[in-house]
Specification:
Blueprint: H1 4-15, H2 17-21, E1 27-33, H3 34-44, E2 48-54, H4 69-75, E3 78-81, H5 88-97, E4 102-105, H6 144-161, H7 166-192, E5 200-203, H8 209-215, E6 218-220, H9 233-245, E7 250-252, H10 259-269, E8 272-273, H11 292-307
Parallel strand pairs: 1-2, 1-3, 3-4, 5-6, 5-7, 7-8
Helix pairs in contact: 3-6, 4-5, 6-7, 7-11, 9-10
The chain binds zinc ion.
The site of zinc ion has 5 residues, from loops.
């Protein structure tokens, strides 16, 4: 059985870009998820027809390709994946498709960080919230410096697949690299405005490890609270205790949809409730995070708003 949710995701991802993938004269590139598709587009511009296998809002960790997705792989000249065990389904899909597209691992050369999820409080090995037990944290794109490495890999791969465009790809990669440098500086400047003691948030996201390492914010997981299910009243009481003892100024809690629970946390702790942070997927073009750079700017805006003194 194919998960209904995943069917919806792949249907959404297929809809518009499919026609593009068949555009004559353009190099067809398939990226595993939206963030990579955006980076590929930034380097390739209109020489490419880029599509993302997992569309906006989809969860690439748990994506289950539909049988027809093998055709999308077969139609692609180049497939771009994150690597770091993020999208094992893509490797299996490529094999199942029988096609032999060039495959670029965008994260190659990035210094991987250990997956903090891998051990519970007692040092036991456990699975992450997606049911995987990866040795490394795959979310390397949460550091703009890492994304410069991604972009270099993508530009080289595009040039190898389409030598005529090599100069264009190199120039675009250089220009985008400057945007990434500016973004990186912007994030550092934003964090620098925050008092040292306030640079920590509680979040159920487990995707900000590279961001934390690069920019000096602390992301604290709520203790003993599953990020998969709606938090119970007992979970909320535990979160409140943790916020008080660790003096955490802000919380971004995805798994509490009950506004009364959130109000209780805010009232009893004085912590600010943050808005949505985007980690693994861009939004649709009319959403708050339609590109990688817009996503990072959105997140830093939300974080500084919640953490400002
Ligand atoms: Zn993730």
């Amino acid at each position: 059985m194919i998960d209904r949710r995943c069917l919806l995701f792949s249907a959404a991802a297929l809809a518009a870009p499919r026609a593009l993938a068949q555009s004559p004269g353009k190099l067809s590139v398939l990226a595993s998820f939206t963030i990579l598709a955006d980076l590929v587009g930034a380097v390739g511009g209109d020489r490419l027809a880029v599509t993302a296998m997992v569309g906006p809002g989809g969860d690439a960790h748990v994506f289950q390709p539909a049988p027809t997705d093998a055709k999308r792989v077969a139609d692609a000249r180049l497939v771009v994946i994150n690597g770091l065990h993020f999208e094992g389904w893509m490797e299996r899909l490529i094999e199942a498709s029988g096609a032999k597209p060039r495959v670029v691992v965008a994260s190659e050369g990035v210094k991987p960080r250990d997956n903090p999820d891998l051990h519970d409080d007692h040092g036991h090995k456990k699975q992450d919230r997606h049911g995987h037990s990866h040795a490394v944290d795959p979310h390397a794109w949460q550091s703009a410096q890492n994304v410069k490495i991604y972009v270099g890999n993508i530009a080289r791969a595009l040039a190898a697949a389409d030598p005529e465009g090599a100069a264009v790809y190199a120039a675009n990669a250089q220009a985008y690299g400057r945007e990434l440098e500016a973004l990186d500086a912007e994030i550092r400047a934003a964090v620098a405005t925050l008092p040292q003691a306030r640079r920590k948030v509680v979040t159920t996201h487990d995707a900000f490890g590279y961001f934390a390492d690069a920019y000096g914010l602390q992301f604290i997981a709520p203790k003993g609270v599953s990020s998969q299910t709606e938090a119970s009243a007992r979970d909320v009481a535990r979160i409140i205790r943790q916020i008080r003892t660790e003096k955490i100024p802000a919380v971004f809690l995805e798994n509490i949809s009950d506004p009364r629970q959130m109000q209780r946390i805010a009232q009893e702790t004085g912590a600010r409730i943050g808005g949505a942070l985007f980690s693994d997927s861009l939004t649709a073009p009319d959403g708050p995070a339609p590109t990688y750079i817009a996503m990072m700017r959105h997140n830093i805006r939300e974080l500084t708003k919640a953490l400002a003194a």
